[in-house]
Amino acid sequence: MLLTGDNEHAAAAIADSVGIRDVRSNLLPEEKMNIMKGFAGGAEPICMIGDGVNDALALASADAGIAMGGIGSDIAVASADAVLVSDEIKRLPYLFNLMQKVMKKVHINIIASLIINVTAVVLSALGILSPVTGALWHNCGSVFVVVNAALLLRLKDE
Predict the structure, then answer these.
(1) What is the pTM of this model?
(2) Mean pLDDT on 70-79
(3) Helix or strand run (H / E) with residue 100
(4) Is there a contact between 53 and 68 (Cβ–Cβ < 8 Å)?
(5) Strand partners, 84
């Protein structure tokens, strides 16, 4: 869906060039926000992409707001959850893929750190680990979490 404050002809030209069928033009910022709020709480999360002052309310109302940082206004950037600095909308699939991988890493890191820490507490309570080795065990878990998260740096945009 394309929500724009532009006139019908400009909106239709942009929508046709990228294959968007649902076009709503001549919208005020409040109207964009109300449309976003109308979708809130649905089965699927809603993402809004915008670049201007008139998109700030809708960006903040969406489940995920993405601002086009290079050409966007400061208020749009401040209202968004993520910012595309390069202003290349073709990078959105990479952003979504990266986001899924980050959340998977977060879950893995939480589970791993819980297992490591619970193991250290149980082994310490049983007298198998001394306080010093328990602390080392905990620090090894922290290092694992940091290194595992740092592996995300290997991901490159294709």
Answers:
(1) 0.67
(2) 76
(3) helix 92-125
(4) no
(5) 68
